[in-house]
Amino acid sequence: MNSRKPVNIAELRRMRAAGEKIACLTCYDASFALLQDRAGVDLILIGDSLGMVIQGGNTTTPVTVEQISYHSKCVAPHLQRAFLVADLPFLSYATLERALDASQRLMQEGGAKMVKLEGGREQAAIVEYLSVRGVPVCAHLGLQPQFIHKMGNFKVQGREQAAAEAMLHDAQVLAQAGADLLLLECIPAELGARITAQSPVPVIGIGAGSGVDGQILVLHDLLGISPQVTLGHTPRFVKNYMAGAVAQGEKGGVIEAAIADYVREVKSGAYPAPEHCFETTVKR
């Protein structure tokens, strides 16, 4: 049974040191905030994924600071334990001043306790600028949805050795700049484990293998109701926990049971299984 003591950065570091996996999910409203907090989710992200699963768009780029702040404000008052992180949307951190202004809004108005931004070593100055001013930062490497129009499509990152080494270096630079947390998306499991082994801060993965310190999924993917899952384009790393809860004959609180099953499997290491992980094509 999880302690009801609120999770903070020190607790996330303690969990990493103790080898306890960190269970994370996205959330966008009060009802699911209550369910997730009660089910034992350690960290909740107000993701710009809301642009796709809530607004029905094809990318995250149209999402605004105002929208992230609104959804964060819906979630924050209903969390007794879970640590709340909010995404900095596309171009909201293009300059130091804009990054600070957006972070101030998400923390003061939205109630977030940390902000997340995408990008590698080129974001180090922004991470440092925010960090020394008391803004906790989660850095996001690997597949970066805000860069989709630059990347061209959603695909696994870091499969080539040069790209893998660059990402490993980026992770170290961002941590040195003051990032308190690192999120890795859609990278080979081997690379996820390497980055985690060398990282001084906790590492959360989504499609980054089992060798990271914790896992995160988009809530609607976990429940099997996101547009991409509904249309049959399920990402490799997604597991439908709602289907499992229904199959087990859960009554009444089937959604909460699905979330609790996810938390248990993250904690035990059962998720992600090998079928949810990406392999590298680089031969060493």
Please characterize this protein's 3D structure:
The chain starts with 8 loop residues before the first helix and ends in a 16-residue tail after the last helix. Helix content is 41%, strand content 13%. The protein has helices at 9-18, 30-39, 50-53, 65-75, 96-108, 124-131, 148-151, 161-177, 189-198, 219-222, 227-230, 241-247, 254-268, and strands at 22-26, 43-46, 83-87, 114-118, 137-142, 181-185, 203-206, 214-217. It has an 8-stranded parallel barrel with strand order 1-2-3-4-5-6-7-8, surrounded by 7 helices. It has one domain: TIM Barrel, CATH 3.20.20.60. By secondary structure, the chain is of the alpha/beta class. Helix 4 (65-75) packs parallel to helix 5 (96-108), helix 8 (161-177) packs parallel to helix 9 (189-198) and helix 12 (241-247) packs across helix 13 (254-268). Strand 1 (22-26), helix 2 and strand 2 form a beta-alpha-beta unit.
